[in-house]
Fold this protein.
Amino acid sequence: MGIKGISNVQEGVKQITGISIAESGQLIVRGLGDRYSTTTLNGLPIASPNPDNKLIPLDLFPSSTVQNITVSKVYDASAFADYSGAHIDISTKENVTDEFLNVSFNVGGKFNTLGRDFYQMDRDGTLFKTLSLDEKIYDMPLLDFDEYVTQNNIFRTTFDVDKKTALPEFGGNLGFGRNFAVGGQTLSLLASFSLSNETQKLDDAFYKTLEATGNVQNDFTYDEYTSTLKMAALASVGYTLRQHDRIGYTFFYARNASDSYQSRAGVDAEGHNLWGSNDITHIYTLQNHQLNGHHEFGTQWQLNWAGSYGKTGSEEPDRRQVMFTKDDAGNLQLFKLNRQETMRYFGSLDEKEWNGNLALRWKWNENNFLKLGFNYKNKSRDYKATRFYYNLNKINPTVTDIYDTDGFLNQENIADGNVTVQRVMQPKDSYRAGNEIYSGYLLTDFYPVPSLLVNLGVRYEISKQWVDYATDGGDWYAERRNLDKNDFFPTLNLKYTINDANSIRFSASRTVTRPSFIEMAPFLYQESYGSAQIRGNDELQNGYNYNFDLRYERFGKNGDMISLTGYFKY
């Protein structure tokens, strides 16, 4: 990565054959998307700041902090079995061989965005700040809220839209590493911080919703203006105990925040000609703590242990929407057909995950070993959403500009009773979920003959996955979906060395693909008026994958390699 001038893990991984990075940042491995791969940090699972995705964005890890990246496109029994695409393990630097201080800075912009008009709905502060409401607004009885909202401006933003000029994008990274001699041992310190922003204008986009018969339900075109802030920090401390013993602690923090404004025009399912404003803010945060140790006993025994705690937050604060109807003459009026056209939405998702690894390895000679290990994972999630609907039936303002709404969508009209705000907290808008996995594995590397390496392993996983939810009109968390499975996952990896320049590899394995929490329950989600409604399925089961790879490798001079791979997955 250093030779090629690669600045982060994502840029490094996409150099590998069979791996590509989608525009959204998601990893595609041999045509398989996000759900089929997995990422770990120092061998421990690490969640994505975006709970809708399984994989953490790889551009969060600057290359200055990375010791190596291991990409396994075939399964190994020491890892959790939920991948068929690739397992990407990011190892941070442990003992800093060369002290370093790296500083980088970049500036740029997109041709269709830089210097152009850029629209943004009223925002309270910057993307460094997460907007929140006073907790008592959620807790107070509904009658008390109806009175409270007329006397207090509970929202610190309006529906107004400002026009600005798109400025250049900036980014930078600061990395530091140094060793210290402490009591005859080595204390290794490593730290990195990166920060960047992006602006993106999207012109003349559209989406349609169609029935199976081909009838168009919704047909909207839109212009979208998105601001994004990415921030990541990593710190690592390592300490040697003896010549072959080491303990370490690693902390990782990430914050991805985006704000998207859409100016949308089109026709809904009832044939209304509409034009409106929609603003969506997503704020994803992740903090991960890891503690690990490596111990050697003589020349034959090794013990490795590790544990981690991760906390993920996904906030959708103050999603706002206001819709207008347009008559044949082009005149605008507030759209009042139902309460969902002018609204605010506050959604919050919190996820916690514990992981533990323990592995004992015995080498009976230089190239042959037997490994016994245990893994534990416990993940829990809590999601809730609140909607605030605006009843506008008592006002009929003259609308000349959808960007200027403060003249009628204001606290004065709410206080006078001309506009009423209704708080809606339905049981179906919340759910709780969890996943617990106990697993053990046994694997071996051995050479039955000098030219043949055999990696043979088996893994047993006890998985308990559940979601507590409410059906439409049901009580809070009244329904539970359980998905409990006990599975064996065998794997066989062979490497036959024909000579120094030629080798053949073969792999066969069984792995699993589990449904995500939101897919397991009929929880309804809709991001904006007229957009698709997404609902889970409480009858979903695990998917099981059978993977076969055959690979020929030829090594040339100067480290060159030519390979030919065929693979089959069912």
